[in-house]
Every structure is written in C-alpha cells, then in structure tokens.
Write a structure and sequence with these properties.
This protein is of the alpha/beta class. The chain is built from 17 helices and nine strands. Strand 2, helix 2 and strand 3 form a beta-alpha-beta unit. The protein is elongated and about 75 Å long.
Length: 373
C-alpha cells in the first residue's frame, strides 16, 4: 500500500485527445503515489475514451456523461472521490513530478488551512513557459482570503495549483455552480469555500497551466462571458455574508459591478444604487461611486439628463467634492467637452496606476477595474 493520505484527482475531459495522454502520464510520474485519478468524460466525440483505455492502472477511474459542461463534470468527479485530499487537473494541464508530494505535505503540516494553492507556470500550446502564476497575482494572501478573492480571481488563479481537504468540501456541501455559469465557476467555488475556510500558500512550482485556443474562456463569446460574470457578481451581492466584507472590498466590488458588469445598463445600475447594501456604505464612498457611475453613463452614450442626475446625487451627498462639481460645470459647456475631459483624466489615472502597480495592492485592484471600463 502506498504511504500517505489518498488524494482524489478530478479530471474533466471534453474532446481532449491532444493533451490527455500527457496529463495522465504526469499523474503516473508523481513522486507521491497514493492517488486516484477520476476522469469524467463530458460527452467527448473524439478519441478521448480510446486514449484513456490504453492505461491499465487500477487507480484510474473513467466515467462518461452527456455533455453538460466542465462544472458538471467536476461535480460528477467529486461525487466519486474517496480521498482525504482533493485536487483538480484539467486534461490540458500538467503536474510537475513533485506536485502531489509538496501539496500533501503542506496540508499535513498546516491543519489550520482547508485548502492550499501554489505557484506554477503559464505555458503556451507547446508547453513553453510564458510566465509564473505569481506574476498575475495581486499579491500573496493567506488565511482568510475572502476579501481579496471577492475582488479578483487572480488571488488563487487556476484549479491545477490547488489541493483541498475533502472534509471541508463535504462539511460545507461544496460543488460547482452549473446554472448559467459556464465561465467563472472556479472563482465562485473558491469564494464560497473562503467564506468558511482559511487558505495557505505553498511557495513552490507544482504545475503547468496551458493557454490555447480551446480554453473555455476563449471558446465562448463576449456576451456569454459578460452574462456569467454578472451572475457571479450578483451571487455575492445577494449573499448573507456580503455585509461582513471590509468597507474597502465593498467599495471596489460596487465599482466593478456598476461600471464593468452593468456598464451601460442604467436601469440595473439604479437598482443597485438604491439597494440597502449600497446605502450602508459611508457617504464619501457613495459620493465617489455615484460620480463614477455618472461617468460610465456619459461614456456609454446616454442622455445628458441621465448623466446629470448621477452627478447631482453625488453632489447632494457631498457638496464639497471638487471632481463632481467640475463635471457638473463642464456639462454646461456640452457633452463633447465633458467626454473629452473625462477620457484625458482616465488616461492619466491609468498611467499613474501602472507606475504604482508593483508596490501598491490597491493600485493593482484599481488598475484591473480601470482596464475593463
């Protein structure tokens, strides 16, 4: 019998014949050998089943289901797992030989953490290293990472760099959301786990995450991505724990929700701005966000009356806010002048934020928000 706790590796596979053999082999090559590999074929029509059939290792378990998406395939795999630890390996990603050994050791030595995430490589289709996962993270956050994770999925990044206690998964009935949420399921999963569990960070490279033209985020169109993104954001907005988030987190969350997920949708923006959750923010933050929404309304081509109403609301909350007063004054000159001034202003802010990006975590978050507006 192999030593150590059993690790259940969940691998969803859909038409994955190009990389699947490598993915299975990287599990077989692990220095840590007490694992089970649960491969869920999500309705593949290529050679996926035949490739899996070439492996005779009894630790590899295969099941087929009609195509229901990656999230549903992961849920199926999680329903079959027997291990004390759970890991995710997509059919186009790779573990380094030390991956399971290092992550198991970390969780064994740190019982205070329900999950661990590590460093890794981001690679192209040929496996060439492009950058490290740490290079896209806003920083390394451990313990209670909920507030950081609500702002950006880059805190954890990708499932292949993680390992989680199955006791935590079962205790909090964790599963991947399959309703209207093909994109963003990982982020949503980690957020819900972070509500109840602390996360640890393993400062070792354990995996290779492959970027190619059939990644799920590239296959689906912009409208689908935006719809799913809004769905994930609204789940947080309506959660029972939303009010417990830090003020700074809620500020950035509302800016993102209103001027990214809901940009141009003035009716939905108004509903959020009229909500109890928004009204509970300090007045200076409400003033700032009303002004930012007014700028979004301006840039998305709505009437000057709509823009003016947002700015007047901002001014009513804080009559001394110079930015809002200037914008209200500029509207008297005309739409074109105000829009030109706003574009110049935001261009300058982007430059400043880029200069501070590496040394200021708040600038990282703001930069991410500015880039999608």
């Amino acid at each position: 019998m192999p030593e150590g706790k059993l690790v259940s590796i969940i691998m969803p596979a859909y038409n994955g014949e190009k990389y699947l053999k490598q993915a299975i082999e990287c599990v077989l090559d692990q220095s840590y050998q007490n694992w089970e590999l649960i491969i869920v074929d999500d309705g593949s029509t290529d050679n996926t089943a035949n490739i899996i059939g070439t492996f005779s290792d009894s630790r590899i378990h295969y099941s087929f289901q009609e195509n229901r998406g990656e999230a549903a395939a992961r849920n199926t795999g999680m329903g079959q797992m027997n291990g004390e630890y759970m890991a995710f390996l997509d059919a186009d990603d790779l573990y380094l030989p030390n991956a399971l050994d290092d992550m198991v050791s970390y969780l064994d030595e740190h019982p205070q953490y329900g999950s661990v995430f590590s460093d890794g490589y981001i690679c192209d289709q040929q496996g060439k290293h492009l950058m490290r996962l740490t290079e896209v993270r806003p920083g390394i956050f451990t313990g209670n990472i909920l507030n950081s994770l609500v702002i950006t999925p880059s805190v954890v990044t990708v499932p292949v760099c993680t390992m989680t206690r199955t006791s935590s998964v079962r205790k909090y009935d964790m599963h991947f959301d399959t309703e209207n949420n093909l994109i963003g399921t990982d982020w949503d999963f980690w957020i819900r786990l972070a509500v109840n569990e602390n996360f640890g960070y393993l400062d070792k490279i354990t995996c290779k995450y492959r970027i190619h033209q059939t990644n799920i985020t590239r296959v689906y169109g912009e409208e689908k991505r935006r719809k799913d993104y809004l769905y994930c954001r609204m789940k947080i907005f309506h959660s029972t724990w939303f009010t417990a988030l830090l003020i700074h987190t809620k500020e950035l969350f509302f800016i993102d929700l209103l001027t990214n997920a809901l940009s141009g949708n003035i009716e939905q923006q108004q509903k959020i701005l009229d909500s109890d959750q928004f009204s509970s923010l300090p007045s200076y933050i409400q003033c700032n966000i009303w002004r930012i929404v007014g700028i979004d309304v301006l840039q998305t081509g709505h009437s000057l009356d709509d823009v003016r109403q947002c700015l007047l609301k901002s001014n009513l909350i804080n009559p001394d806010d110079k930015k809002t007063r200037f914008l209200l004054s500029s509207l008297r000159v005309g739409y074109t002048f105000t829009l030109l001034w706003v574009n110049l202003w935001r261009g300058w802010l982007k430059v400043i934020n880029k200069l501070n990006l590496k040394s200021n975590s708040k600038a990282v978050y703001l930069q991410k928000l500015l880039e999608v507006q």
